[in-house]
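Lecture 7 notes: from sequence to structure.

We start with a single chain of 150 residues. Read the sequence below before looking at the structure.
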Amino acid sequence: MNQMKFDKVANSDILIGYSNIEGLKKIPFKEWFENEYTNYQPDIEVLNRIDKESFTKNTNITLVMGTWCSDSQQQVPRLVKILESIDYPINSIKIINVDTQKNANGTGVNQLDIIKIPTIILSRKKLEIGRIIESPEISLEKDLLKILSN
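Now the structure, written as tokens:
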């Protein structure tokens, strides 16, 4: 959990394998995480349309990301802020950090059909109900609402 390694392609330390939100709040990731988290304002109007009880109790989230990836650096802190604002149990998110080759040994990430990161996979009863890939189609809030409404 929260293991770092130096990635030659990214030319920086990255998180690899499983992590939690606390791992993203540590140096050297802390600056981009806190900056994006602080500056993002969730769309409360859209979030109020989500069935929060069903979402928080019945929906699992797997997040495949790279701490070296600019889209992950932007979208992941925003996602965390959104989920916290609707009382989603943040520590239940399965976070898999991949290297620049999109590998993370021992995580099963190669079975998830990951093409771009971040990939946010939503599932219920172990069945995938939707994903947000790289960046949202409209906004994270609206894309979540669309997936959860199907």
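The mean pLDDT is 96. Keep this in mind for problem set 3.
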